[in-house]
Design brief:
By secondary structure, the chain is α/β, with parallel strands linked by helices. The chain folds into two domains: about 120 residues, Periplasmic binding protein-like II (D-Maltodextrin-Binding Protein, domain 2, 3-Layer(aba) Sandwich), CATH 3.40.190; about 80 residues, D-Maltodextrin-Binding Protein, domain 2. It is built from nine helices and 15 strands. A five-stranded mixed β-sheet has the order 11-10-12-9-13. Strands 1, 2, 5 and 6 form a four-stranded mixed β-sheet that branches. A hairpin with a 5-residue loop joins β3 and β4. α2 packs across α8. The longest helix has 21 residues. It is globular and about 60 Å long.
Amino acid sequence: MKKWLKIGFVLLTVLAFAVVVAGCGGGEKTGETTGEGEQQATTETQNLVFGSDTSYAPFESYDANGKLEGFDVDLIDAINEVSGLNIEMKTYDFKGLIPALETATIDGAISAMTITEERKQKVDFTVPYYKSGLATAVKADNQDIQGYDDLDGKKIGVQTGTTGELEASKVPNAEVVSFDTIDGAFMDLTNGAVDAVVNDFPVTAYYIAQGNDQVKIVGDLQTSEYYGIAIPKQKPEVLEKVNAALETLKENGKYAEIYKKWFSVDPPAELPGEPQN
């Protein structure tokens, strides 16, 4: 009798352990529950971390209450809604994003990053989600600099690691001063420490629109550029999911809604649609 009691106790212990293990599976799951409590159509949410230079309004910046906001921020929220991904944005210096992507320290980067041939050698890009170009900004009372072609021999402020820095380095006899954030470049422009700032047009225009009317944009845009979300080459499955989400958002109108919220105009009729790898 004692023998059978001992066997029964062992069996109950094993069954209890199996139930505990089954309840401790990793990953967040979503699905529908039937009346009998059985879960159907279960899918696992993929948690990802995307780096971003969060001092680049109107694409990403912190508001007065310390909340992250911007076009890129809203776009990531929308991607999360339609993709089954759970992407969290974390602050990185812009110059540190490509190295972090190369080592797959982060799962992606969304930071108003221009798709370039050099960057494509190191990371993959999604389909473009924004068309931009480089603008030249000077103090509002500056009459000598009428555009990019007048920067010869001038002191130019740029953000480190950007296409603005690359383009400014081509100006003959210019002294290029690089800053970790674009805010530093604008600050030196307003106090006269640099003669001009070469930077992405929407960011410069937004800076001026926030009441910084001591700065103006001069001349035409120097380049035509496309922004993409950068993904480590080691993570093609993430690239595929984000591309599919972007396509869905363009089709269902959510992308246009976010674009108009931040730029007060409709997005271009079409952007290049092929993956930029």
